[in-house]
Amino acid sequence: QVYRVSVEGGRPTMISSMPMECISINKEGAMLYQDKKGYEDYWRKHHVSPIARDIWMYTPGKEPQYRQLTTFGGEDREPVWAPDGKTFYYLSEENGSFNIYRRTPGDAKAVQLTHYTKNPVRYLSAATDGRLCYGFDGEIYTLLPGGEAQKVNISIVSDRNDKDIIRQIKSSGATEMAVSPDGKEVAFVLRGDVYVTSVEYKTTKQITNTPCQERTVDFAPDGRTLVYASERGGLWQLYTSTIVRKDEKLFTYATELKEERLTNSDAASFQPQYSPDGKEIAFLEKRSTIRVINLKTKDVRTVMDGKYQYSYSDGDQWFQWSPDSKWILSDYIGVGGWNNKDVVLLNADGKGEMVNLTESGYNDGNAKWVLGGKAMIWTSDRAGYRSHGSWGAEDDTYIMFFDAEAYDRFLMNKEETALLEEAEKAEKEKAGKKDEKDAKKKKGDADKDKEKKVEPLKFDLANRFDRIVRLTVNSSHMADAMLSAKGDKLYYLSVFEDGYDLWEHNLKENVTKVLLKKVGAGALQPDKEGKNIFLCARDGMKKIEIEGSKISPIEFEAFFDYRPYGEREYIFDHIWQQVNDKFYVADLQGTDWNGYKETYKRFLPYINNNYDFAEMLSEMLGELNGSHTGARYYASGAALPTAALGVFYDEAYAGDGLKIKEIIAQSPLTKKKTDVKPGCIIEKVDGVAIKAGADYFPLLEGKAGRKVILSVYDPVTGKRFEETLKPISYGAQNELLYKRWVENCRKKVDEYSGGRIAYIHIKGMDSPSFRKIYSDLLSESSRKKEAVVVDTRHNGGGWLHEQVATLLSGKEYERFVPRGQYIGSDPFDRWLKPSCMLVCEDNYSNAHGTPFVYKTLGIGKLIGAPVAGTMTAVWWESQIDPSIVFGIPQVGCMDMQGNYLENRTLQPDILVYNEPEAVLKGEDAQLKAAVDHLLKRLPQKK
């Protein structure tokens, strides 16, 4: 919406409820503006698509007129009137990069004034003498029509008032954790640096101190070395830090550490994991290839090729060494199994066949060795509620035995287990009675005996599917699970109500109980004896004593050197490299990515805040001409956000107070019996009078959810009265406006079709939206209809194309008719009647993919405006500065002809645009066209 406000301040008054950006007004009041049809990152460049902006002119009056001035399929932006009020200038990518063009509203062609070929012109403005001013390549230029552009020489003399290094002490913010073998200390990562702290005390040792990022830390079995990944020089590699002095046992109190680089390759290498014997380290190379490095020879071998796995986001891969250091369990998708993950057994020497242990059409993963390697536990969604709209599947923990004897023992009840253990104990005691001479050993031999020999594992895999046991009683949304050393108790993190609880299931007694409430989600890490569980959750690191169900925070005081300039440089390099490694096509659509790195990196020394930093990152990312990218800076919001009353005001009313034009359904004034109705005037808010022309918004600052007293006057009755209510946030009011719009559309369809056609709107491509349309579409009121209009307009995406297509593609093949009474049809969970789908320029991501699938499968016709090609899966990655997030469009979707959907416009079968004048009158030509189309398919009523 566009508002007018006096330069002296006062109440804003609405000019138009059409979206307008970059407004320029001439002396006659005519407004030039760039339209905003929907969402796309503001800094995206080079795209020719329906969402690209055009220049329009708005002429106010009794019958306001909206006129489109530019028709180029790419970006036309930032119009400004020339001093004569008849000519205007604007920016366009019509010939490549953003340049300045001149035209008049009646011209069919424009005159190009600048001819830059690489970087964009930005921030165009015009002076009253005709001089133009703009930004280009980090500089400011002026241009007189007919002349040459002149760079403005700017010299800023200023003392620098910020620092390169700011020493801080942090006591929170750990993002991952590893427990030492003796359970006395934990290593953790805090804003990209590695630390070690005592479990019992706050004393903390800093291991790394770089502006770069370290992560995925692990202890060596002897507890004297740490291994971790670090992205120094733009490349993830493995490093170790070792305690140098032999008399020092703990990192927390070590005085001398030695860091060494472990890998030396040109491929990203991270997520290291020590083998139990400490001789080797397994790690990920290029995010999905499992490799092993021998610490003595430094030889590296491949255990599983990356083609058998896909990493969507860093940290999403799982593997684990076997107790005998000879095998590895890993997640595995094979060929084409992205949505049907399995667990694979790998020989750590890199030889032999991989064995798919689970061979399931469900999702299986997170496998862990248990019972000394005689079995594994893993999670699977095969038994719980299935995804109903791409999300929502519940997990269970299962155990698979590789040893028949261990399986038989596991199945014993409590009594049988007790008898067996008693017999084993007696046998041990008998075998332990030896000659006293043999019992005496030298100290060295005694120390050797303390080391328990690990027997090589043997696998009986032929009957493994017959030795699977479900361990959890109830399916749920699980974060992690672990089995006790004896195999008699399962501990797991699950959410049933509010937050993740720690549960214990006694497998012998078949008793399940909550050990601790709301402990948070994270990986469960037991100590060697299995007496304690360590957890790194969002609210901090914790030690959980199983016996007694006691939880204690692991506190720390960590020195952190905040390097704002160094950190921003690292984030820049990291983002550049992430795109280089993960963008959905390897050639980055022909983008000169190396060249743009040089172009934009040179601005880093002059950026001292994250607003500018995010904009610069977005400019660079915008060169890719890809959807789902750009950088975001999430600063803290307003301290006192303005509340809303849930009403429309009469913009024509000029007197004191606020005249109510409409009360929005389900808003605060509809939730109780009240005399307030349209036409009433709100004279005061909490006793403060609202004068004519005065700004009333400050009276509602910070009052969402708080009681407010409105003083109201009813001109019809002449009555003045007070009304107490709780205002809502603008976010809540927007939700009510969405419901109002959907209800209006439903009523129009009912009116246009004479009650014959149903209407549903898909708000987002997510589970709640799918459950809503499933409920509405298959309800009795919709079943009585003869067809349905499926509206996907203004949908921001998600992942729902398969479910929507399946729901709408039902073909009736049988009916249920007991004694002549029709009671239902099959399929009962699909729509069996005609449909059509509404689309517009504001469909994004999966809201492009869903109509594409609908059209490709021939389910029905698409009606409305063209949709930009944005059906690409994205990973929005948070940076070590968590206020910075950026997107990588990384999983491209292809049609069956081998064409990526990205940047391929989806054309509707019936093209209809909603014109501004009609929209402002409440008309919807697209909706009307959809109803007309369906009515033609229905039998004519007599």
UniProtKB/TrEMBL annotation:
Belongs to the peptidase S41B family. Residues 423-449 are annotated as: Disordered. This is Peptidase S41. Residues 565-622 form the Tricorn protease C1 domain. It is found in: Cytoplasm. It holds the Pfam family Tricorn_C1. The keyword Protease applies. Transmembrane segments: none annotated. Its main location: cytoplasm. InterPro entries: 6-blade_b-propeller_TolB-like, ClpP/crotonase-like_dom_sf, PDZ_sf, Tail-specific_protease, Tricorn_C1, Tricorn_PDZ, Tricorn_protease, WD40. Residues 756-912 form the Tail specific protease domain. GO terms for biological process: proteolysis. GO terms for molecular function: serine-type peptidase activity. GO terms for cellular component: cytoplasm. Keywords: Cytoplasm, Hydrolase, Protease, Serine protease. It comes from the Bacteria. PANTHER family: TRICORN PROTEASE HOMOLOG 2-RELATED (PTHR43253:SF1). Residues 665-714 form the Tricorn protease PDZ domain.
